Amino acid sequence: MTDAPVRPTAWQVATVVAVADETSRARSYRLRLSRPVPHLAGQHYVVRLTAPDGYTASRSYSVASAPDGSGEIELTVERLDDGEVSGYLHDVVEAGDELEVRGPIGGWFVWRGDAPALLVGGGSGLVPLMAMLRLARARGRSDLVRLVASVRSPEDLYYAAELPGPEVTVVYSRTAPPGETRPPGRLAAADLGPGPPPAGLTAYVCGSAGFVEHAGRLLVEGGLPVDRIRVERFGPTG
Amino acid sequence: MARPTRGFFGRGRSPRSERLPPGQYDAGDDWPVLSAEVTPRLDLAEWTFTVDGLVERPVTWTWEEIHALEPSEYHGDIHCVTTWSKLDMSWAGVSVDTLLHAAAPRPTARYVMARSHTGYTTNLPLADVTGGKAWVAWEVGGEPLHPEHGGPARLLVPHLYFWKSAKWVSGLELRDSDAPGFWEQNGYHDRGDPWLEQRYQGD
Protein backbone atom coordinates (compact mmCIF):
# COMPACT_ATOMS: atom_id res chain seq x y z
CA MET A 1 0.00 0.00 0.00
CA THR A 2 3.00 2.28 0.37
CA ASP A 3 4.04 3.55 -3.03
CA ALA A 4 7.26 5.19 -1.87
CA PRO A 5 9.51 4.75 1.14
CA VAL A 6 8.80 7.41 3.70
CA ARG A 7 10.47 8.31 6.95
CA PRO A 8 7.87 7.64 9.62
CA THR A 9 8.35 11.11 11.02
CA ALA A 10 8.26 13.09 7.77
CA TRP A 11 5.47 15.65 7.37
CA GLN A 12 2.90 14.73 4.76
CA VAL A 13 -0.40 16.01 3.51
CA ALA A 14 -3.53 14.10 4.45
CA THR A 15 -7.00 14.64 3.03
CA VAL A 16 -10.01 14.65 5.32
CA VAL A 17 -12.42 12.11 3.87
CA ALA A 18 -15.02 12.03 6.64
CA VAL A 19 -15.93 13.86 9.83
CA ALA A 20 -18.24 12.37 12.44
CA ASP A 21 -19.38 13.46 15.89
CA GLU A 22 -18.61 11.06 18.73
CA THR A 23 -20.10 13.28 21.44
CA SER A 24 -21.00 16.95 21.69
CA ARG A 25 -17.32 17.68 22.39
CA ALA A 26 -15.49 15.01 20.41
CA ARG A 27 -15.26 14.46 16.71
CA SER A 28 -13.52 11.85 14.56
CA TYR A 29 -11.64 12.76 11.40
CA ARG A 30 -10.88 10.10 8.82
CA LEU A 31 -7.73 11.07 6.93
CA ARG A 32 -6.39 9.63 3.70
CA LEU A 33 -2.61 9.76 3.89
CA SER A 34 -0.74 10.86 0.78
CA ARG A 35 2.09 8.53 1.78
CA PRO A 36 0.63 5.76 3.94
CA VAL A 37 2.72 4.32 6.73
CA PRO A 38 1.50 1.27 8.68
CA HIS A 39 0.81 2.16 12.31
CA LEU A 40 0.55 0.16 15.51
CA ALA A 41 -2.54 0.30 17.71
CA GLY A 42 -1.88 2.97 20.35
CA GLN A 43 0.35 5.25 18.28
CA HIS A 44 -0.37 8.90 17.58
CA TYR A 45 0.01 11.50 14.87
CA VAL A 46 0.93 15.15 15.08
CA VAL A 47 -1.31 17.61 13.25
CA ARG A 48 0.29 20.91 12.23
CA LEU A 49 -1.67 24.00 11.30
CA THR A 50 0.04 26.83 9.44
CA ALA A 51 -1.25 30.42 9.35
CA PRO A 52 -0.69 32.67 6.32
CA ASP A 53 2.23 34.40 8.08
CA GLY A 54 4.00 31.11 8.77
CA TYR A 55 2.92 30.74 12.40
CA THR A 56 2.31 27.10 13.23
CA ALA A 57 0.54 25.19 15.98
CA SER A 58 0.94 21.43 16.42
CA ARG A 59 -0.78 18.92 18.66
CA SER A 60 -0.67 15.16 19.02
CA TYR A 61 -3.77 13.00 18.56
CA SER A 62 -4.09 9.27 19.04
CA VAL A 63 -5.15 7.08 16.16
CA ALA A 64 -8.53 5.45 16.88
CA SER A 65 -8.56 3.15 13.88
CA ALA A 66 -6.91 -0.25 13.77
CA PRO A 67 -4.11 -0.80 11.28
CA ASP A 68 -6.07 -2.04 8.29
CA GLY A 69 -3.97 -1.40 5.21
CA SER A 70 -6.45 1.16 3.91
CA GLY A 71 -3.99 4.04 3.82
CA GLU A 72 -6.40 5.93 6.05
CA ILE A 73 -6.34 6.76 9.73
CA GLU A 74 -8.99 8.04 12.06
CA LEU A 75 -8.14 10.61 14.72
CA THR A 76 -10.62 11.49 17.45
CA VAL A 77 -10.23 15.01 18.79
CA GLU A 78 -11.74 16.34 22.00
CA ARG A 79 -12.58 20.00 21.89
CA LEU A 80 -10.71 21.67 24.73
CA ASP A 81 -11.77 24.97 26.25
CA ASP A 82 -9.74 27.63 24.48
CA GLY A 83 -7.97 24.92 22.47
CA GLU A 84 -6.20 26.55 19.56
CA VAL A 85 -5.88 23.40 17.46
CA SER A 86 -8.88 21.40 18.66
CA GLY A 87 -11.07 24.48 18.31
CA TYR A 88 -9.93 24.98 14.73
CA LEU A 89 -10.46 21.32 13.89
CA HIS A 90 -13.99 21.41 15.31
CA ASP A 91 -15.04 24.78 13.91
CA VAL A 92 -13.48 24.78 10.48
CA VAL A 93 -12.37 21.41 9.15
CA GLU A 94 -14.67 19.50 6.84
CA ALA A 95 -14.38 16.67 4.34
CA GLY A 96 -12.12 17.61 1.46
CA ASP A 97 -9.75 19.74 3.54
CA GLU A 98 -6.06 18.97 3.62
CA LEU A 99 -4.09 18.79 6.84
CA GLU A 100 -0.38 18.42 7.47
CA VAL A 101 0.43 15.41 9.64
CA ARG A 102 3.42 13.38 10.74
CA GLY A 103 3.49 9.95 12.24
CA PRO A 104 2.93 7.34 13.39
CA ILE A 105 4.79 8.19 16.59
CA GLY A 106 5.39 6.25 19.78
CA GLY A 107 6.69 2.75 20.31
CA TRP A 108 5.77 2.20 23.95
CA PHE A 109 2.03 2.60 24.37
CA VAL A 110 1.33 0.08 21.62
CA TRP A 111 -0.36 -3.28 21.46
CA ARG A 112 0.65 -5.63 18.68
CA GLY A 113 -2.39 -7.84 18.93
CA ASP A 114 -0.70 -10.98 20.22
CA ALA A 115 -0.72 -10.86 24.05
CA PRO A 116 -3.33 -10.46 26.78
CA ALA A 117 -4.15 -6.83 27.43
CA LEU A 118 -6.30 -4.96 29.93
CA LEU A 119 -7.30 -1.60 28.45
CA VAL A 120 -8.41 1.07 30.91
CA GLY A 121 -9.51 4.42 29.54
CA GLY A 122 -10.95 7.53 31.11
CA GLY A 123 -12.90 9.95 28.90
CA SER A 124 -10.91 10.83 25.80
CA GLY A 125 -8.29 8.33 26.94
CA LEU A 126 -10.42 5.73 25.21
CA VAL A 127 -9.09 6.76 21.79
CA PRO A 128 -5.82 4.76 21.54
CA LEU A 129 -7.49 1.85 23.33
CA MET A 130 -10.19 1.84 20.66
CA ALA A 131 -7.50 1.16 18.07
CA MET A 132 -6.46 -1.85 20.16
CA LEU A 133 -10.04 -3.12 20.58
CA ARG A 134 -10.72 -2.69 16.87
CA LEU A 135 -7.52 -4.61 16.07
CA ALA A 136 -8.49 -7.45 18.40
CA ARG A 137 -11.97 -7.70 16.90
CA ALA A 138 -10.71 -7.48 13.32
CA ARG A 139 -8.38 -10.38 13.99
CA GLY A 140 -10.97 -12.43 15.82
CA ARG A 141 -8.90 -12.20 19.00
CA SER A 142 -11.30 -10.38 21.30
CA ASP A 143 -10.45 -13.05 23.83
CA LEU A 144 -7.08 -11.34 24.35
CA VAL A 145 -8.46 -8.00 25.49
CA ARG A 146 -10.67 -6.57 28.18
CA LEU A 147 -11.58 -2.92 27.94
CA VAL A 148 -12.87 -0.81 30.82
CA ALA A 149 -14.05 2.64 29.81
CA SER A 150 -14.82 5.22 32.47
CA VAL A 151 -16.98 8.20 31.53
CA ARG A 152 -19.01 10.74 33.46
CA SER A 153 -22.31 10.05 31.74
CA PRO A 154 -23.69 8.17 28.73
CA GLU A 155 -23.46 11.38 26.69
CA ASP A 156 -19.67 11.39 27.16
CA LEU A 157 -19.05 7.91 25.77
CA TYR A 158 -17.12 7.79 22.48
CA TYR A 159 -17.92 5.09 19.91
CA ALA A 160 -21.10 4.30 21.84
CA ALA A 161 -22.70 2.27 19.06
CA GLU A 162 -19.63 0.23 18.26
CA LEU A 163 -18.23 -0.30 21.73
CA PRO A 164 -20.55 -2.82 23.41
CA GLY A 165 -19.40 -6.42 23.53
CA PRO A 166 -18.64 -9.15 26.02
CA GLU A 167 -15.06 -7.86 26.38
CA VAL A 168 -16.13 -4.28 27.21
CA THR A 169 -17.25 -2.74 30.49
CA VAL A 170 -18.41 0.87 30.71
CA VAL A 171 -18.24 2.54 34.11
CA TYR A 172 -20.20 5.75 34.75
CA SER A 173 -18.76 8.08 37.36
CA ARG A 174 -21.56 10.68 37.59
CA THR A 175 -24.69 9.58 35.76
CA ALA A 176 -25.57 6.04 34.78
CA PRO A 177 -28.01 5.16 32.03
CA PRO A 178 -31.40 3.65 32.90
CA GLY A 179 -31.11 -0.02 33.75
CA GLU A 180 -27.47 0.18 34.81
CA THR A 181 -27.06 -1.84 38.02
CA ARG A 182 -23.72 -0.36 39.07
CA PRO A 183 -24.34 2.92 40.89
CA PRO A 184 -22.42 5.89 39.45
CA GLY A 185 -19.01 6.29 41.05
CA ARG A 186 -15.32 6.44 40.55
CA LEU A 187 -13.53 3.52 38.96
CA ALA A 188 -13.06 0.80 41.60
CA ALA A 189 -10.97 -2.34 41.92
CA ALA A 190 -14.01 -4.52 41.22
CA ASP A 191 -14.48 -2.79 37.84
CA LEU A 192 -11.07 -4.01 36.71
CA GLY A 193 -11.94 -7.65 36.94
CA PRO A 194 -12.31 -10.46 39.39
CA GLY A 195 -9.31 -12.15 40.94
CA PRO A 196 -5.61 -11.64 40.42
CA PRO A 197 -4.34 -10.58 37.00
CA PRO A 198 -3.38 -13.51 34.76
CA ALA A 199 0.30 -14.04 34.04
CA GLY A 200 1.56 -12.20 31.01
CA LEU A 201 -1.10 -9.52 31.18
CA THR A 202 -0.13 -5.97 30.23
CA ALA A 203 -2.37 -3.09 31.24
CA TYR A 204 -2.70 0.00 29.06
CA VAL A 205 -4.07 2.96 30.99
CA CYS A 206 -4.94 6.23 29.28
CA GLY A 207 -6.71 9.35 30.43
CA SER A 208 -6.17 12.48 32.47
CA ALA A 209 -3.24 12.53 34.88
CA GLY A 210 -5.62 12.07 37.80
CA PHE A 211 -7.44 9.15 36.20
CA VAL A 212 -4.20 7.44 35.25
CA GLU A 213 -2.79 7.75 38.77
CA HIS A 214 -6.01 6.38 40.26
CA ALA A 215 -6.33 3.47 37.85
CA GLY A 216 -2.64 2.67 38.09
CA ARG A 217 -2.85 2.50 41.85
CA LEU A 218 -5.85 0.16 41.69
CA LEU A 219 -3.96 -2.14 39.34
CA VAL A 220 -0.83 -2.20 41.50
CA GLU A 221 -2.90 -2.85 44.63
CA GLY A 222 -4.64 -5.63 42.71
CA GLY A 223 -1.36 -7.40 42.21
CA LEU A 224 -0.25 -6.28 38.75
CA PRO A 225 3.52 -5.59 38.69
CA VAL A 226 4.34 -1.95 38.01
CA ASP A 227 6.36 -2.92 34.95
CA ARG A 228 3.28 -4.51 33.40
CA ILE A 229 1.45 -1.19 33.34
CA ARG A 230 1.88 1.21 30.46
CA VAL A 231 0.30 4.60 30.82
CA GLU A 232 -0.40 7.58 28.64
CA ARG A 233 -1.57 10.80 30.19
CA PHE A 234 -3.58 13.29 28.23
CA GLY A 235 -2.67 16.75 29.39
CA PRO A 236 -4.41 20.05 28.71
CA THR A 237 -2.58 20.68 25.45
CA GLY A 238 -5.39 22.16 23.37
CA MET B 1 7.41 27.05 4.97
CA ALA B 2 4.45 24.77 4.58
CA ARG B 3 1.45 26.16 2.74
CA PRO B 4 -1.18 27.71 4.97
CA THR B 5 -3.96 25.57 6.39
CA ARG B 6 -7.34 26.75 5.10
CA GLY B 7 -9.04 29.05 7.55
CA PHE B 8 -6.32 28.90 10.21
CA PHE B 9 -4.92 32.17 11.46
CA GLY B 10 -3.64 31.13 14.86
CA ARG B 11 -3.67 33.06 18.04
CA GLY B 12 -1.62 33.53 21.15
CA ARG B 13 1.43 34.72 19.27
CA SER B 14 1.10 38.43 19.79
CA PRO B 15 2.96 39.18 21.86
CA ARG B 16 4.83 35.91 21.53
CA SER B 17 7.75 35.63 23.89
CA GLU B 18 11.08 35.38 22.15
CA ARG B 19 11.92 32.80 24.78
CA LEU B 20 9.49 30.32 23.22
CA PRO B 21 11.30 27.93 20.85
CA PRO B 22 9.62 27.22 17.50
CA GLY B 23 6.39 25.26 17.73
CA GLN B 24 6.04 25.80 21.48
CA TYR B 25 3.28 27.60 23.38
CA ASP B 26 3.28 29.13 26.83
CA ALA B 27 1.41 26.80 29.21
CA GLY B 28 1.06 29.62 31.75
CA ASP B 29 0.06 28.24 35.12
CA ASP B 30 -0.64 24.75 33.75
CA TRP B 31 1.96 22.08 34.24
CA PRO B 32 0.86 19.03 32.26
CA VAL B 33 1.93 15.64 33.60
CA LEU B 34 3.33 13.28 31.01
CA SER B 35 5.07 10.04 31.83
CA ALA B 36 4.97 6.48 30.63
CA GLU B 37 4.65 4.76 33.97
CA VAL B 38 2.66 4.86 37.17
CA THR B 39 3.97 7.48 39.59
CA PRO B 40 6.20 5.64 42.08
CA ARG B 41 6.08 6.22 45.83
CA LEU B 42 9.71 6.50 46.84
CA ASP B 43 10.83 6.29 50.45
CA LEU B 44 13.34 9.02 51.26
CA ALA B 45 15.02 6.73 53.80
CA GLU B 46 15.88 4.35 50.97
CA TRP B 47 16.43 6.92 48.21
CA THR B 48 19.88 7.02 46.64
CA PHE B 49 21.60 8.71 43.73
CA THR B 50 24.65 7.14 42.08
CA VAL B 51 27.24 8.30 39.57
CA ASP B 52 29.06 5.34 38.01
CA GLY B 53 30.41 3.99 34.73
CA LEU B 54 33.55 5.65 33.39
CA VAL B 55 34.54 7.42 36.61
CA GLU B 56 37.53 7.11 38.91
CA ARG B 57 35.33 6.41 41.93
CA PRO B 58 31.63 5.56 41.73
CA VAL B 59 29.73 7.55 44.34
CA THR B 60 26.33 6.97 45.91
CA TRP B 61 24.56 9.62 47.96
CA THR B 62 21.66 9.18 50.34
CA TRP B 63 18.91 11.80 50.53
CA GLU B 64 20.68 13.45 53.49
CA GLU B 65 24.10 13.30 51.90
CA ILE B 66 23.06 14.88 48.63
CA HIS B 67 21.38 17.71 50.54
CA ALA B 68 24.68 18.41 52.29
CA LEU B 69 26.31 19.29 48.96
CA GLU B 70 26.58 22.85 47.75
CA PRO B 71 23.10 24.01 46.75
CA SER B 72 22.43 25.30 43.26
CA GLU B 73 19.43 26.90 41.59
CA TYR B 74 18.00 27.31 38.12
CA HIS B 75 15.74 30.20 37.20
CA GLY B 76 14.32 30.02 33.72
CA ASP B 77 12.23 28.09 31.24
CA ILE B 78 11.45 24.46 30.40
CA HIS B 79 10.18 23.02 27.13
CA CYS B 80 8.22 19.79 26.64
CA VAL B 81 8.28 17.99 23.29
CA THR B 82 4.47 17.90 23.37
CA THR B 83 4.70 21.65 22.59
CA TRP B 84 4.12 23.32 25.95
CA SER B 85 6.73 25.49 27.64
CA LYS B 86 6.77 26.96 31.12
CA LEU B 87 8.57 30.24 31.60
CA ASP B 88 10.24 31.73 34.65
CA MET B 89 10.42 28.67 36.86
CA SER B 90 12.59 28.43 39.96
CA TRP B 91 14.27 25.14 40.73
CA ALA B 92 16.64 24.16 43.55
CA GLY B 93 18.87 21.16 44.06
CA VAL B 94 22.48 20.39 43.29
CA SER B 95 24.48 21.01 40.14
CA VAL B 96 25.41 17.89 38.17
CA ASP B 97 28.91 19.43 38.01
CA THR B 98 29.19 18.98 41.77
CA LEU B 99 28.15 15.33 41.52
CA LEU B 100 30.51 14.57 38.65
CA HIS B 101 33.40 16.32 40.41
CA ALA B 102 33.04 13.92 43.31
CA ALA B 103 33.13 10.89 41.02
CA ALA B 104 35.90 12.20 38.71
CA PRO B 105 34.92 11.24 35.16
CA ARG B 106 37.56 9.48 33.10
CA PRO B 107 38.80 11.22 29.94
CA THR B 108 37.05 8.60 27.80
CA ALA B 109 33.59 9.52 29.16
CA ARG B 110 31.58 11.27 26.43
CA TYR B 111 27.95 10.41 27.16
CA VAL B 112 25.70 9.80 30.12
CA MET B 113 22.75 7.50 30.54
CA ALA B 114 20.41 8.91 33.16
CA ARG B 115 18.31 6.30 34.92
CA SER B 116 15.31 6.42 37.20
CA HIS B 117 14.00 4.44 40.11
CA THR B 118 11.24 3.26 37.74
CA GLY B 119 13.67 1.87 35.15
CA TYR B 120 13.24 4.86 32.83
CA THR B 121 16.39 5.87 30.98
CA THR B 122 17.46 8.78 28.79
CA ASN B 123 20.75 9.41 27.04
CA LEU B 124 22.65 12.70 26.85
CA PRO B 125 26.03 13.93 25.68
CA LEU B 126 28.23 14.60 28.72
CA ALA B 127 28.69 18.15 27.47
CA ASP B 128 24.94 18.73 27.93
CA VAL B 129 25.04 18.01 31.66
CA THR B 130 28.27 19.87 32.53
CA GLY B 131 29.20 23.53 32.75
CA GLY B 132 26.23 24.67 34.82
CA LYS B 133 23.59 23.26 32.46
CA ALA B 134 22.10 20.44 34.54
CA TRP B 135 20.88 19.75 38.05
CA VAL B 136 19.42 17.08 40.28
CA ALA B 137 16.47 19.12 41.54
CA TRP B 138 14.12 18.54 44.47
CA GLU B 139 12.40 21.89 44.85
CA VAL B 140 10.33 23.93 42.45
CA GLY B 141 8.84 27.30 43.28
CA GLY B 142 10.14 26.91 46.83
CA GLU B 143 8.16 23.70 47.42
CA PRO B 144 9.23 20.04 47.43
CA LEU B 145 8.92 18.55 43.97
CA HIS B 146 5.62 16.66 43.74
CA PRO B 147 5.88 12.94 42.86
CA GLU B 148 3.90 13.32 39.64
CA HIS B 149 6.46 15.87 38.45
CA GLY B 150 9.33 13.55 39.33
CA GLY B 151 9.76 14.04 43.06
CA PRO B 152 11.47 13.49 45.34
CA ALA B 153 14.16 14.45 42.82
CA ARG B 154 14.49 14.62 39.06
CA LEU B 155 17.19 15.43 36.61
CA LEU B 156 16.86 18.97 35.26
CA VAL B 157 18.39 19.74 31.86
CA PRO B 158 16.33 22.76 30.88
CA HIS B 159 18.04 23.56 27.58
CA LEU B 160 16.81 20.25 26.12
CA TYR B 161 13.26 18.90 25.72
CA PHE B 162 11.98 17.88 29.10
CA TRP B 163 11.89 14.11 28.59
CA LYS B 164 15.68 14.39 29.04
CA SER B 165 15.04 15.66 32.57
CA ALA B 166 14.41 12.18 33.94
CA LYS B 167 11.78 12.02 36.68
CA TRP B 168 12.55 10.04 39.84
CA VAL B 169 16.20 10.05 38.82
CA SER B 170 18.42 7.47 40.48
CA GLY B 171 21.76 7.96 38.81
CA LEU B 172 24.01 8.79 35.91
CA GLU B 173 26.17 6.24 34.12
CA LEU B 174 29.11 7.75 32.23
CA ARG B 175 29.85 6.06 28.92
CA ASP B 176 32.22 6.33 25.98
CA SER B 177 29.45 5.73 23.43
CA ASP B 178 25.88 6.87 22.95
CA ALA B 179 22.95 4.47 23.30
CA PRO B 180 19.25 5.28 23.07
CA GLY B 181 17.24 5.58 26.27
CA PHE B 182 13.55 4.86 26.78
CA TRP B 183 11.89 7.45 24.55
CA GLU B 184 14.86 7.53 22.21
CA GLN B 185 14.22 3.82 21.47
CA ASN B 186 10.62 4.76 20.83
CA GLY B 187 11.10 7.29 18.10
CA TYR B 188 12.31 10.39 19.91
CA HIS B 189 15.47 12.33 19.12
CA ASP B 190 18.82 11.44 20.69
CA ARG B 191 19.63 15.03 21.66
CA GLY B 192 16.36 16.97 21.78
CA ASP B 193 17.33 20.63 21.32
CA PRO B 194 14.06 22.61 21.36
CA TRP B 195 15.60 25.50 19.40
CA LEU B 196 16.37 23.09 16.56
CA GLU B 197 13.01 21.29 17.01
CA GLN B 198 14.79 17.96 17.46
CA ARG B 199 11.60 16.16 18.50
CA TYR B 200 11.76 12.83 16.72
CA GLN B 201 14.46 10.60 15.25
CA GLY B 202 15.44 12.07 11.92
CA ASP B 203 14.73 15.70 12.85
Written overview of the protein:
The complex is a heterodimer of chains A (238) and B (203). Chain A has 238 residues and is α/β, with parallel strands linked by helices. Chain A has 2 domains: 11-105, Elongation Factor Tu (Ef-tu), domain 3 (Beta Barrel); 117-233, Nucleotide-binding domain of ferredoxin-NADP reductase (FNR) module (Rossmann fold), CATH 3.40.50. Chain A has 3 helices and 11 strands; from the N terminus they run βββββαββαβββαβ. In chain A, the strands form 2 sheets. In chain A, strands 4-3-6-1-2-5 form a 6-stranded antiparallel β-sheet, with helices on one face. The longest helix of chain A has 13 residues, at 126-138. Residues 1-6 of chain A have low confidence and may be disordered. Chain B is 8% helix and 31% strand. Chain B has helices at residues 63-67, 96-103, 182-185, and strands spanning 25-26, 48-53, 59-62, 71-79, 84-95, 111-116, 121-125, 135-140, 143-144, 154-156, 169-175. In chain B, the strands form 2 sheets. In chain B, strands 1, 4, 5, 8, 9 and 10 form a 6-stranded mixed β-sheet that branches. Chain B has a 5-stranded mixed β-sheet with strand order 3-2-11-6-7. The longest helix of chain B has 8 residues, at 96-103. The chains are: A alpha/beta (238), B mainly beta (203).
Please provide the count of β strands of chain B.
Answer: 11
Question: How would you name the CATH homologous superfamily of the largest domain in chain A?
Answer: Nucleotide-binding domain of ferredoxin-NADP reductase (FNR) module
Secondary-structure element string of chain B: EEEHEEHEEEEEEH
SS field, number of helical segments of chain A:
3
Task: Specify the structural class of chain A.
Answer: alpha/beta
Compute the average pLDDT of chain A.
91
Structural class assignment of chain B: mainly beta
- Read across the widest sheet of chain A, the strand sequence of neighbours is 4-3-6-1-2-5
Uncertain stretches of chain B = none
Rounded radius of gyration of chain A (Å): 18 Å
Strand composition percent of chain A: 25-35%
Name the overall outline of chain A: globular
Q: Give the class-level CATH name of the largest domain in chain A.
A: Alpha Beta
Shape type of chain B: globular
Detail the poorly predicted runs of chain A: 1-6
CATH topology of the largest domain in chain A: Rossmann fold
